[in-house]
């Protein structure tokens, strides 16, 4: 799917005849759509095709070359299921006065830009501002995703206190995989962001230092949050094994105590069920006597077990 956008009254609007084309957004494009854009703007094929590779790394190409298309490829977080994220590449291409973004899967990461929710000092019609805004939003999405995972970790802490199910372990594995992906992605995005600002040819706005500081701080914050959450989850995994073992011990202790208590009526009933002369065997209320005796012994055993914290 390809969407075209222009600038009108300093706002992003859908492209119509009579307006200059400013931004081409490609999400889950078909082969035909990719070929159309590649041929129209004479782009290297890998600029767009590489976003289909989930293992693609961040990179920057042609940033200092005069007259060439410029590629900035970054990794962004993509929510797969509740509590599980992956990272995927996004291509940001600058060519012939047009910005082209491409992702292999549909994502809402750029929706805020289509809604014109920019930072206060960003000039929408500036290509460099727009590219920097995309990079800043990607760092923001990492932070939001990590916060979501931190909430999931908090819920796991509460659930594991009473649960012995493997389901919690599977949730923990998904969170761990997500954080590892985030750790690698934010680490790879960092040098690309630094390279973007090292180029005076492309990024030379008068408030360039403000953009540098905000973007680098945002990416650094994402890295720190990912590292913190990874450490928390690592310790939580160790505790989880101990909690499960302790919960299983409690369950076995209770089941063993119940078995001991229920054994008493069985023994009493077995003894007085023999075909030999026994006390109370000729009594009219012998059954109730034996029932009371079983109950008395059972209560004594329950009291003894509770006193020793076995029940």
Automatic annotation (TrEMBL):
Keywords: Membrane, Transmembrane, Transmembrane helix
Top-level taxon: Bacteria
InterPro entries: CorA-like, CorA_cytoplasmic_dom, CorA_TM1_TM2, MgTranspt_CorA/ZnTranspt_ZntB
Subcellular location per the Swiss-Prot or TrEMBL entry: Membrane
Keyword Transmembrane: yes
Pfam families listed in its UniProt record: CorA
Major subcellular site: membrane
Topology of this chain in the membrane: Multi-pass membrane protein
Transmembrane segments: 254-274, 286-305
Recorded family membership: Belongs to the CorA metal ion transporter (MIT) (TC 1.A.35) family.
Name this protein carries in UniProt: Magnesium transporter
Organism: Peptoniphilus stercorisuis
